[in-house]
Specification:
The protein is of the alpha+beta class and 117 residues long. The protein has 4 helices and 4 strands. The chain has a 4-stranded mixed β-sheet, sandwiched between helices. A hairpin with a 3-residue loop joins β1 and β2.
Amino acid sequence: MMYRQASFKPEARLHAPPEFRRVFAQGNKHVSDGLVVIFAVNDRPQARLGLALAKRRIRRAVDRNRVKRLVRESFRKARIHLPAIDVVVLARSQTSTMSNAALAAQLAMIWQRIERS
């Protein structure tokens, strides 16, 4: 049963450009060494995630995909504790050189900050 609650279904993702634009326009920002997380309250019953990892910031596709997997997994686990928000995650230049553990730690810290705000 816990697996169902923590799954990452299409309803938990941002898809359309207007959804991303709304978060960029209305959102609050949390910045860490490797990531920028912007979030805005939504009218849905759950938190949703959007990824905007630019090739300009993370050159190699293998690195972009690694970061995407880490962010999705971290969000999937934290989502049940987050309020009804839309989240967009952006990469910074040093993101591709960071370890998985460092990125996971930053994401955990950001989810806790969002939960408290």
